[in-house]
Amino acid sequence: MPPTVIAILASVAIAGGFGALVGILVGGRRTQRTTDTSPTGGQTVTSRPVSPGVTLGTTMRDIAPKGYIGMLDRQVVLAGRPPAWTVDRILMAKPVLAIVALLVSWWWISGDPVLPRFALGAFVVTLSFFVPDLLIYSRALERQEKIQNALADTLDQMTIAVEAGLGFESAMAKAATNGKGPLAEEFIRTLQDMSIGRARKDAYESFSERTSSPDLRRFTRSIIQADAYGLAIADVLRIQAAEMRLRRRQRAEEKAMKVPVKVLFPLVFCILPVLFIVLLTPAVLGIIKAFS
């Protein structure tokens, strides 16, 4: 096949693949009409939104292992359930990216079919297949880190509000209204759960399950125990805020102590060889010229 035709086919495949990926992730919704039968015998026609390609997403969900689906759903929860990153869309994006990478690798390998290109092409295809997993994992990790970093300051605000006379839920609502970020969003969701009649303990436990931060889990357990035994919330908040600040400072010191170890590898393998070349090359050339 001529190289021009291969290039055209590869360009069309890339454009189509990325177009399909964009349609999967941010595409609109269509409505599906369903008929429900009421207990009185009547029928009600309703419409519910259906994402494009929902059948493919359901098929991929049926094929994938249940443990992997659970892990993926857990990462989506930790990422805050972004609208464009549902489990079905992630499962649909994985084969699309892999097919696009396979076509591009095939076009690149056909120009010079040697073993290194085959190996690199296989690596690119494998990496493209797992790119959605890496993206959702990175987003979840970033969100949980923001929650953990904002927890100490938020508890300080809640402590001041409780000591000023507000209740715990009112202080939480005040911190959620004045704050920004994922922690404020989780506070708002917890308050919404309690406003629709959910038990406080269940709402706090769900709040704890939606995060992987050990500090936040410890805080929710303390609040549940204080609520169960009738302890003063202000004292609990004051103690928890002090512990959160201490742990945040310890984490910062730990990261600072890890910096020399992380810098050692690029220093030895990247900076020192170049420095030796710059410094020793004139001397070596002078020695060679003197003894030649």
From TrEMBL:
Keywords: Cell membrane, Membrane, Transmembrane, Transmembrane helix. It comes from the Bacteria. The keyword Oxidoreductase does not apply. The chain crosses the membrane at residues 6-26, 91-109, 115-137, 263-288. One of its GO terms (cellular component) is plasma membrane. It is found in: Cell membrane. InterPro entries: T2SS_GspF_dom. Residues 34-49 have a biased composition (Polar residues). The keyword Disulfide bond does not apply. Residues 32-51 are annotated as: Disordered. Residues 155-280 form the Type II secretion system protein GspF domain. It is a multi-pass membrane protein. This is Type II secretion system F family protein. It comes from Cryobacterium tagatosivorans.
